[in-house]
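Hello Y.,

Per our agreement to keep a running log of every chain we model this quarter, I'm adding this entry. I've kept the format consistent with earlier entries: sequence first, then predicted structure.
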Amino acid sequence: GKAGLPIKYTPDFMATDGSWVIETKGYLPSHHDFTMRWKLFLRHLVGNQAKTIVFLAKNSGQVDKAIQEILQSIKNGDI
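Predicted structure for the entry above:
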């Protein structure tokens, strides 16, 4: 009989048109619920057939690479 709270997830960076998402996560063992939220978010994207490029960056080098890939996709006209 307990009321459940809704699960919320907000990406760290997201294009206004939803064409790309960058989530930044370092090693944070205290954030044990992130895995569940992330999986539900990905399932939401797949279920809605969203054409979104998704990046899970764990350090600044990966963030830089994600940005380069986004810029290249824009240049190529993919997004």
